[in-house]
Amino acid sequence: MLAYHSALGGVGDPARPGIVHRLDKDTSGLLMVAKTDESLRSLAAQLKSRSVTKGYLALVKGRIEPSEGVIDAPLGRSPRHRKKIAVVAEGRDARTGYKTLKELDGYTLLEVAPETGRTHQIRVHLAAVGHPIIGDRTYGGRHPALSRQFLHASYLKFRLPGSGKEIELRSRLPQDLSDALETISGEGPRAAGTL
């Protein structure tokens, strides 16, 4: 971020200047960055109060039923694999809403809305209900059409610090995920013989 806006160097945590929230490694999309400490505090408070709306696009294995719902399962460190997150009874409250956008042969494209912001929440919740995100090497497995997980932060709604004006931002799928979706759905020019 400093390469784009050098003034961020003095905002918030020196290791992550200006960064309000994180995205998992290999997740693309929208990220909130503050230019001042005051803005950082305002945006962080909105996240803490759950007044920020976040939306993601995810391609998962299988056909999810019901086609719309909420996964409500506590998350914490896996007792078997300490570097992983898992659904555990003593974990922290976590809720993830989802809605089917498109059904493909053996896959479902979802719009996902996390109500809480736990580490790896979307990935773990979807894997826990038997529909891991394709390309997710930690919770789902590799896929020949992808070099990373099919998870994209596509939507943010929050209030601008200072003015309080509500703003909505959208981000289209990046080229690699768009190409993978075309390949997997059989609609793309490279679909033949790819999978």
Order of helices and strands: EHEEEEEEHEEH
Q: What is the helix content?
A: 10-25%
Task: Write down the overall mean pLDDT.
Answer: 89
Query: What count of helical segments does DSSP give?
Result: 3
Residue share in β-strands: 25-35%
Give the number of DSSP strands. Answer: 9
Q: Based on helices, strands and strand pairing, what is the structural class? A: alpha+beta
How far is the first residue's CA from the last residue's CA? 37 Å
Assign an overall shape: globular
Low-pLDDT residue spans: 1-9, 188-195
| Largest sheet entry | 7 strands, mixed
- Integer-rounded radius of gyration: 18 Å
Structure description:
With 195 residues, the protein is an alpha+beta fold. Helix content is 16%, strand content 28%. It has three helices and nine strands, in the order E-H-E-E-E-E-E-E-H-E-E-H. The chain has helices spanning 37-48, 121-128, 175-185; strands at 28-29, 53-61, 68-72, 75-77, 85-87, 95-104, 107-114, 151-159, 166-170. Strands 1, 2, 3, 6, 7, 8 and 9 form a seven-stranded mixed beta sheet that branches. A hairpin with a 2-residue loop joins strand 6 (95-104) and strand 7. It is globular and about 50 Å long. The relative contact order is 0.17. Mean pLDDT is 89; it is low at 1-9 and 188-195.
